[in-house]
Design brief:
Blueprint: E1 9-15, E2 25-26, H1 31-36, E3 47-49, E4 55-57, H2 61-68, E5 72-79, H3 87-96, H4 107-115, E6 125-128, E7 144-146, H5 149-154, H6 157-179, H7 181-191, H8 194-201, H9 205-208, H10 219-232, E8 239-244, H11 253-277, E9 284-290, E10 309-314, E11 321-323, E12 344-345, H12 346-356, H13 363-366
Parallel strand pairs: 1-8, 1-9, 5-11, 5-12, 6-7, 6-8
Antiparallel strand pairs: 2-4, 3-4, 5-10, 9-10
Helix pairs in contact: 2-11, 6-7, 10-11
Length: 378
């Protein structure tokens, strides 16, 4: 079977709330880990070792398969200097790649502008979920946002209009806090309903899609299935965005985090298998990130906001393995006496994706030169 020639596509998955990196990629033989974590800890029986020092959380078994197949790159210690622990500001920094000031242009929105400078295709960038992530927001750059393909296709026009209104309200709520109501009104006015009109073009995509993959019945799995459907419809989308919520695990982490790991790993693995089954996997890269890691010590029930987290890149074109360095767990090396230190700047990873996948110049978007990695076979 010959592979269809497609342009390279980037799928970005946001883990909202701050994923606990140490309980995802577990330093299962490190005494400092077990000294710091008394209750919110993965025992050596609950992990899947990838070497003598690190293991994947056993609740994310599909990740172990992808890692063993060489399709999962683990970026250790990702972050930036003086990590911000506010969810809102922290995510804002990741969305705009501007830690030192409040940026008003999303990093992916700028990439979309480069990919489609005349704004000819409202489906160049597609968000699967409500509202629009700041990462995709740039004045004058149309981006489509669709909450649920299956539901959207069968709605009548009044219901679709209500959904549009609801999405715009969510959008105003997000951006009003960040940049003030005036710029938001201007943004929506200039971009118009382009943000949502692409959803009309997607209304029958769900009907055209067939697959042997049975995705699980949870939100991230449904979202990844919608990404697959749109990608397979070949509508020219180069950047997809979606989010998986629930990672702010201050309390009850041990029941909630394993479930999140199970959902996330299953959704990504099914997505890649789905594309493989349609002979459409070779040019798709999945990037998974979160706004910060959690602290070294647990709080008895969960973990509080920290730094020095992890990110992940998946795909057939990925040379799997470990990238950058796992932050030192030695108490003498903790940042502010309680955190993991970052070992690679997230802007270097953005630059890697922008230049090596999307073939867009990174410097104007990440505002400088940052160390890149080389995770791609080609």
């Amino acid at each position: 079977m010959t592979t269809k020639s497609r342009e390279k596509t980037l799928v970005v998955v946001q883990l909202t709330g701050g994923n606990d990196f140490m309980n995802t990629i577990v330093p299962y033989t490190n005494e400092h880990y077990y000294d710091a974590r008394k209750k919110v800890v993965m025992s050596q029986e609950d992990v899947l070792p990838i070497n003598d020092e690190l293991a994947i959380n056993a609740n994310a078994t599909p990740f172990k398969r992808l890692y063993d197949e060489g399709k999962m790159a683990i970026i250790q210690g990702i972050g930036y200097p003086n990590s911000n622990r506010s969810h809102f500001r922290g995510m804002d920094i990741w969305h705009t790649a501007e830690p030192d000031r409040v940026g008003n242009e999303g990093w992916l929105g700028q990439a979309i502008r480069e990919l489609d400078p005349r704004a000819e295709n409202v489906l160049t960038g597609v968000n699967v979920g409500m509202g629009l992530p700041r990462a995709m927001s740039v004045t004058g750059v149309p981006v489509t946002s669709v909450g649920d393909l299956e539901g959207y296709g069968v709605m009548n026009s009044i219901e679709q209009q209500r959904l549009r209104d609801k999405a715009l309200e969510a959008f105003k709520g997000i951006y009003g806090q960040a940049v003030g109501a005036g710029p938001v009104a201007e943004y929506i006015g200039q971009t118009g309903l382009d943000v949502l009109k692409g959803a009309d073009m997607l209304a029958d995509v769900a009907d055209q899609y067939e697959s042997e993959i049975e995705y699980a019945d949870n939100q991230i799995a449904k979202n990844m299935r919608d990404v697959a459907r749109i990608h397979l419809a070949d509508l020219g989308t180069r950047i997809f965005y979606t989010a998986h919520g629930g990672y702010d695990t201050h309390a009850n982490e041990m029941p909630s985090h394993p479930k999140l790991m199970n959902e996330l790993s299953g959704a990504i693995s099914d997505f890649l298998d789905d594309l493989e089954g349609h002979d459409a996997a070779d040019d798709v890269t999945v990037f998974v990130f979160t706004e910060f890691g959690r602290r070294m010590r647990d709080n008895g029930s969960g973990t509080d906001h920290g730094s020095g987290g992890g990110a992940y890149i998946f795909g057939n074109n990925v040379m799997g393995g470990l990238y950058s360095e796992y932050p030192s767990l030695n108490i003498a090396d903790w940042e502010h006496g309680e955190d993991l230190k970052h070992t690679i700047d997230f802007r270097g990873i953005y630059a890697t994706l922008l230049e090596q996948i999307l073939e867009v110049e990174a410097r104007p978007i990440v505002k400088g030169e940052y160390e890149q990695i080389s995770p791609f076979a080609n």
